[in-house]
């Protein structure tokens, strides 16, 4: 380094050579750390060294602490997950050499890619470009004169097909081999391939079934001859078309149809492969006139988002949920409070800052199980367009000392790196029980203390919103519920008859999915006495059980022909017998007292 000065020394994945010395498994690792420390100290002693040492890692906590003190790695720069504005700037850099359509909107793509890092956006751009190439290539295929004529491409070829007997493939012999001699020109051959590949609906399959007795065993066999279509529509030239002979013993009609469809799919794939190989060998590169007007559209990027998974999601980090307010049939009052607590600070950040409200608010959703607390959290995150981390309370607990606290720190660190973000703690009572004065339950006490520090400690949460859900708010530590943490408690109770009707309409898509008969009245079902203690999850189970009853009826009468599955009133009556409410009458009184206590 001194000889090459001035220079920059970059050490990638520095954690692999500088682990903590107290946990190092080999003496060599300790010696490497000690040598690196002494070398960096020597550089500081010389004023004219002019050497800059840069290290990169995604595990800074695993580095030896001596490396992170002043005089060695003085500054630590955290490269977190880019926000919406940063993603838009990254996309502009990645797409500066690409031809984009006139309606392309960087901000729209950036908004629909939460949790994407630079590498993910690069993969997204590459996938969108491939989709655009495939789209333009298909358009060029439909143009006349696209394929050049090369004589002798398919002439003299002989295609043989293996024979399948009793589900086992055997080598073709002279008795069961079908050969096809093609003497057409290349253009006609490739044209047929295109028509067979792209126009599957126009092709037809002729299946000739024969029954014969074999001389040895006397078992009946059936020969299925799958004949490819003739472009001229003349059956006399069927010998020139590829055919496939399949011998099956004692096979049902459905298996025969499956075999025929599978063989047709294999033929289509072979034809498409033959066509692509022909283009690679004989087709000249596309000219500038053919590529004129080729551009990557917004639709290509939107389609590629479905195929590219962000790195944060692969690490267990959930991005924007797919639950919307349309998926929730009721809870309008709770919805308004959630929008004001989480949605408003995101959409009206300047107004909140002008009022001096900088701290993100926390919300605790309490109520009986199955009333939609988790769906509410997902819907508000979806509408606001911010990231969403769902944490099950028990999954953070670990039997080893310090591991549970480290898991809590990692959750909040991920949320800060991808702010604005919502952290949703499900079953919060398992994570934050009341701390006792006797010093019992040391592990749970440390987790509660760590959670309190992350919620309202020296480091501000800024755009990190906290939501929790519990069925037992009475056993949660009171310090969690003070202002600045989970200061807003919302009760999500059992739905009223009107709410149940709205939920049933939402579940059944207004009676279209599943399809309901004319004798089914959702209002009557919502006011049924057995629905008094039903939650939203119970209503979903009721509709699902009624649909299964309708499907069971159709399956019994399947021999009468295909019938549409329609759910009628009798199916709901049968479902009422099978589906029991999640909340009993005594528990309902307990939750009513809990709601009254929260209001007071």
Describe this structure in words.
- Keywords: ATP-binding, Nucleotide-binding.
- This protein has 600 residues and is of the alpha/beta class.
- The chain folds into five domains: 7-68, no CATH class; 80-147 and 286-310, Helicase, Ruva Protein, domain 3; 163-282, no CATH class; 316-491, Rossmann fold (3-Layer(aba) Sandwich); 497-582, Helicase, Ruva Protein, domain 3, CATH 1.10.8.
- The protein is built from 19 helices and 13 strands.
- It has helices at residues 27-45, 84-94, 106-111, 118-141, 186-198, 253-282, 298-305, 311-314, 332-347, 349-354, 373-384, 403-417, 428-431, 442-455, 497-507, 522-526, 536-556, 569-578, 585-599; strands at 7-11, 51-55, 163-165, 168-170, 206-208, 211-213, 220-227, 243-249, 362-366, 387-392, 421-426, 464-470, 488-491.
- The strands form three sheets. Strands 3, 4, 5, 6, 7 and 8 form a six-stranded mixed beta sheet that branches. It has a five-stranded parallel beta sheet with strand order 10-11-12-9-13. A two-stranded parallel ribbon has the order 1-2.
- Helix 4 (118-141) crosses helix 7, helix 12 packs parallel to helix 14 and helix 15 (497-507) packs across helix 17 (536-556).
- The N and C termini lie far apart (71 Å).
- Mean pLDDT is 76; it is low at 148-187 and 196-252.
């Amino acid at each position: 380094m001194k000889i090459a000065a001035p220079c920059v020394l970059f050490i990638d994945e520095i954690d692999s050579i500088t682990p903590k010395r107290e946990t190092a498994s080999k003496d060599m690792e300790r010696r490497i750390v000690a040598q690196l420390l002494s070398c960096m100290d020597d550089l500081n002693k010389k004023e004219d060294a002019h050497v800059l040492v840069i290290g990169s890692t995604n595990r800074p906590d695993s580095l030896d602490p001596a490396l992170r003190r002043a005089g060695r790695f003085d500054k630590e720069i955290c490269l977190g997950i880019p926000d919406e504005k940063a993603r838009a700037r990254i996309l502009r850099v990645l797409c500066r050499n690409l031809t984009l359509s006139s309606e392309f909107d960087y901000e729209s793509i950036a908004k629909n890619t939460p949790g994407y890092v630079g590498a993910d956006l690069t993969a997204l751009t590459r996938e969108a470009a491939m989709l655009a190439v495939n789209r333009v290539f298909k358009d060029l295929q439909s143009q006349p004169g696209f394929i050049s004529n090369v004589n002798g491409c398919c002439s003299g070829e002989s295609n043989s097909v293996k024979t399948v007997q009793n589900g086992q493939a055997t080598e073709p012999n002279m008795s069961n081999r079908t050969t096809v001699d093609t003497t057409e020109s290349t253009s006609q051959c490739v044209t047929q391939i295109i028509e067979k590949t792209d126009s599957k609906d126009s092709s037809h399959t002729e299946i000739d079934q024969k029954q014969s007795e074999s001389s040895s065993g006397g078992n009946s066999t059936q020969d299925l001859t799958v004949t490819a279509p003739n472009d001229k529509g003349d059956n006399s030239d069927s010998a020139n078309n590829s055919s496939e002979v399949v011998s099956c013993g004692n096979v049902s009609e459905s298996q025969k149809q499956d075999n025929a469809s599978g063989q047709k799919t294999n033929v289509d794939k072979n034809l498409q492969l033959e066509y692509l190989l022909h283009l690679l060998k004989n087709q000249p590169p596309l000219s500038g006139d053919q590529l004129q007007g080729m551009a990557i559209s917004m639709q290509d990027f939107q389609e590629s988002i479905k195929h590219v998974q962000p790195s944060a999601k692969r690490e267990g980090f959930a991005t924007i949920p797919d639950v919307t307010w349309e998926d929730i049939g009721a809870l309008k009052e709770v919805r308004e409070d959630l929008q004001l607590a989480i949605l408003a600070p995101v959409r009206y950040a300047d107004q909140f800052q002008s009022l001096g409200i900088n701290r993100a608010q926390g919300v605790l959703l309490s109520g009986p199980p199955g009333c939609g607390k988790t769906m509410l959290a997902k819907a508000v995150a979806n509408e606001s367009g911010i990231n969403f981390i769902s944490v099950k309370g028990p999954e953070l607990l670990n039997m080893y000392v310090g591991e549970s606290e480290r898991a809590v720190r990692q959750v909040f660190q991920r949320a800060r790196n991808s702010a604005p973000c919502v952290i949703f703690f499900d079953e919060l009572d398992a994570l934050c029980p009341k701390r006792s004065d006797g010093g019992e339950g040391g592990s749970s006490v440390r987790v509660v203390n760590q959670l309190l520090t992350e919620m309202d400690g020296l480091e501000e949460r800024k755009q990190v919103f906290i939501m929790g859900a519990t069925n037992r708010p009475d056993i949660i530590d009171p310090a969690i519920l003070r202002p600045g943490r989970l200061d807003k408690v919302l009760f999500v109770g059992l739905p009223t008859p009107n709410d149940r009707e709205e939920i049933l309409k939402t579940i059944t898509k207004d009676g279209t999915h599943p399809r309901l008969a004319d004798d089914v009245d959702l209002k009557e079902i919502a006011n049924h006495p057995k629905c008094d203690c039903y939650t939203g999850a119970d209503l979903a189970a009721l509709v699902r059980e009624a649909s299964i009853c309708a499907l069971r009826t159709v399956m019994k009468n399947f021999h009468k022909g295909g019938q549409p599955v329609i759910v009628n009133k009798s199916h709901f009556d049968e479902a009422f017998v099978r589906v029991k409410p999640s909340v009993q009458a005594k528990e309902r009184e307990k939750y009513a007292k809990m709601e009254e206590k929260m209001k007071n």
